[in-house]
Amino acid sequence: MSEPPDDLIMALGLEQIERLKPFGAIAKAPVGTVLVEPGDREPDLIVILDGEIEVFEVDVETGRETSVGVATPGMFMGELNVLSGETTFLRARATVPSTVLRVSGDALRQLMATDSDLGDLIFGVLVARRDYLRETDLASTVRIVGSRYSPETLELVSYARRMGVPHRWLDPDDDESLDAGLAAAGFARSDTPLVASPTAVLRRATVAEFAGHLGLLYEPTSLHIHDVVIVGAGPAGLAAAVYGASEGLDALVIDSRGVGGQAGTSSRIENYVGFPTGVSGSELAERAALQAQRLGARINTPAHLRSIDTVCDGYRLTLDDGSSLMTRSVLVAVGVQYRKLPLERLGALEGAGVFYAATELEARVCEDVPLRVEVRW
Length: 377
Known about the structure:
By secondary structure, the protein is of the alpha/beta class. It has three domains: 131 residues, Jelly Rolls (Sandwich); 77 residues, 3-Layer(aba) Sandwich (Glutaredoxin), CATH 3.40.30; 108 residues, FAD/NAD(P)-binding domain, CATH 3.50.50. Helix content is 28%, strand content 22%. The chain has a four-stranded antiparallel β-sheet. The protein has a four-stranded antiparallel β-sheet with strand order 2-7-4-5, with no helix packed on it. A four-stranded mixed β-sheet has the order 10-9-11-12, with helices on one face. Helix 8 links the parallel strand 14 and strand 15.
């Protein structure tokens, strides 16, 4: 694996660390202390004040550790999951007696709101690190194994891409050795789509199971009342989340598929204000989601809304899984649904020959496949 760029492993200066200290808690880390473990939720930003912390990738099958890098005084550990609350899949351990400063996601947002220079610097590094994770071997920390001809596999891959999750897609139809690898690990084609991470292997995984594993599903909190729940994570819903969170509202966004909506499948959008040279739908959605999360909005998907009921001075939203949440207001931005052709077996072919978008993902399924046209009189 290539060395990360210098701007990803930058060290904060003494003056910057002093400005950051009021937002965190200082902790001692004796030799061998594990500061981050695969499967941890709501990870902190960790600044090394003294000592040395080593970061490892963990093999899902053997538990073998592979060193990713070493953090020394002034450096900080974390990427966008500090703000999104996603599960972490790396391990960090003190190799010498160390002292660290732990800053929670909420505290980091307070920093960004009150110290824009330092906040912008840290946020820029977190974003760059997520991009680095997606573009390098570390993306294989989460692996999706399944055929491109499987609608279930395409759903998983599409969801991972919509949510910006670093992952590697392994298609047995592209690599014949994968079948032998699956068999050696005790799996078969019938177990796909399969999701493997350092903490678990999901057989015949669904999007909901995958999202739960990533920490992206909505988890009800008793007695918690949101200021606003936004149903729909397309451009309108994400814009509402940005505006609401920027005004200090407790904003939650839920969506049945992921961020971006229909716009997220567009290869180029040229009529959206603020982008004079155009922007891809996925880039627009990713930027809006980052902005909303930076300001404090939570985005949980997939979440299928079943009903809305008026209770006391607010609303109770019930989801398809039976969970419910309370909010003072609801904004519905669900967009549109495609009108479907009245054809038999159409549902069975969706995602396996019938598609409602033309992204790179769908193109991969159709690549080098001959087109057969039948004309009946």
